[in-house]
Amino acid sequence: MGEIVGAAICSHHPGLMQSRDFRLLMGAGRDSDLIAGFKRVRAEIDRVNPDTIVILDSHWFTTGYHLVDGGAAYKGRYISDEMPWYLYGLAYDYLGDPGLADLCQEVALEWDIKAQTIRDPDLPRHYATLNVVNHMHLQDRKVMTVGNCQTAKTTHFLEMGQVLGEAIRRSDRRVVLLASGALSHKFNDLDWVQQSPRIFDPVNLSDPALMASDLEAIELLKQGRHGDILADFAKYRSQPWEGLGGHYLQMIGALGGAAATTKGTALSEYENARGTGNIMIWFEV
C-alpha cells in the first residue's frame, strides 16, 4: 500500500531562476530566502525518502477536466511565453510516473470524477513544475504533474485531491506532494512604485490587506487548522490565491480535506514577487 510521506507549499516565481548576482541586486544585497527554502524543502524530501514527487502545478491551466501528466520521461529546453526575455533556455530532464498517473484515472472513473491522464509527448511543460524540479534537483525521483482546472469549484479541487490520495494508497509508492504556487496572487500594475529597495520585501505586495490575509492564513497552516481555511475559502479564492488555490486544495484533499490537521513549518520567509505572496511551508505527514 502506498502512502503520502510529506507535503509542501512551494513558490516557483520566475525571479528565482535568475542569476544570484541579479537576485542580490534586486534584493538590496541579500538573496531571496526562497532560494534557501528550496534547499530546506529538499532536505525534508531526503529525510522522508519518497519514490515519487507529485507537483500540483498552478500554471497548467486545464478546462473541463482535471488532468494528470502520465509521460514516462521529459527532456528539453523551456522558454516562457509569458516573459521570454526573462525566463528562457531552461534545460530539463527528469522521469515521470505513468503507473501512478494511470491509477489516478482508474479511481476517477470509478468515482465519476472528471479527470483523465494525458500521455502526449508534445504536451508542453510549465515553469511551476520546472522551476521546482530544477531548484530542488528532483531528477533523482519520479515526478508526476497534476493540472489546475480553471472551471473547477473548490469542492472539485478537493475531490481531485481525494482521487490522488486514493491512487497513491492503491500504489506501492511513497509520495511527497508539492503544491507549486503562491498564496495571494494579485500582480502590481505595470507602473507600480516600489515601496522597499528590497524587491522581496512583502511591503511591495500589491495590497496590504492581501499581506495581512496571507499572514493570517500562514498561522492557520502552521497550526494545522485546514478546516478553518476551507470553511473560509471563498475569501481566499476571490482574492485570488494563485490558480484559485487549486494547488493547495488538491494537496489538502489528498491529506483528508477539512479533517486534515497536519501542521505546517515555514521553511522560508514570506516574500513578495511582483505583488504576490510567496512562502515555503512543509507539512509533516
Q: How would you summarize the topology of this molecule?
A:
Layout: E1 3-10, H1 20-26, H2 33-48, E2 52-62, E3 66-69, E4 73-78, E5 90-95, H3 98-111, E6 115-118, H4 127-135, E7 142-149, H5 154-170, E8 174-180, H6 208-222, H7 226-231, H8 233-238, H9 246-254, E9 264-266, E10 271-273, E11 276-278, E12 281-284
Parallel strand pairs: 1-8, 2-7, 2-8, 3-6
Antiparallel strand pairs: 1-12, 4-5, 9-12, 10-11
Descriptive notes:
This protein has 285 residues and is of the alpha/beta class. The strands form four sheets. A six-stranded mixed β-sheet has the order 7-2-8-1-12-9, sandwiched between helices. A two-stranded parallel ribbon has the order 3-6. It has a two-stranded antiparallel ribbon with strand order 4-5. It is 35% helix and 24% strand. The longest helix has 17 residues, at 154-170. It has helices spanning 20-26, 33-48, 98-111, 127-135, 154-170, 208-222, 226-231, 233-238, 246-254; strands spanning 3-10, 52-62, 66-69, 73-78, 90-95, 115-118, 142-149, 174-180, 264-266, 271-273, 276-278, 281-284. A hairpin with a 2-residue loop joins strand 10 (271-273) and strand 11.
